Amino acid sequence: MYRGIPLGRGTVPGFYQPAHSVKRVETTIVVDRVNLLQADATDLIRDAALNDRVELRVLGDVGAKIRIIGFTSPGVEVSVDCAIVISPRKQAVTYKQCGFNGLSV
């Protein structure tokens, strides 16, 4: 999202993650027919060109099952909320902070 406006959609295929491990997950965000008002488009261009920073927010729901000694739990869902800042000149992420909201079974 850019300033509260949804820009695209992405999905991550399911995977198994062993206990006490870290996994990097990548996805491609598909941006198709975004409806930006003129003011929002102007802000986006100004942020990118003049300020060399575009702040985005990535939201998503992650479904998971937990396996303990051969028993699999019912599905759980966690909402992920990440704030990232991109530098268009460097073509790099310059800031990121992620958190999660609630755990529902």
Automatic annotation (TrEMBL):
It is a single-pass membrane protein. Transmembrane segments: none annotated. Keywords: Membrane, Transmembrane, Transmembrane helix. Its main location: membrane. It is found in: Membrane. It holds the Pfam family LEA_2. GO terms for cellular component: plasma membrane. It comes from the Eukaryota. Residues 2-82 form the Late embryogenesis abundant protein LEA-2 subgroup domain. GO terms for biological process: defense response to other organism. InterPro entries: LEA_2, NDR1-like. PANTHER family: EXPRESSED PROTEIN, LATE EMBRYOGENESIS ABUNDANT (LEA) HYDROXYPROLINE-RICH GLYCOPROTEIN FAMILY. This is Late embryogenesis abundant protein LEA-2 subgroup domain-containing protein. It comes from Anisodus acutangulus.
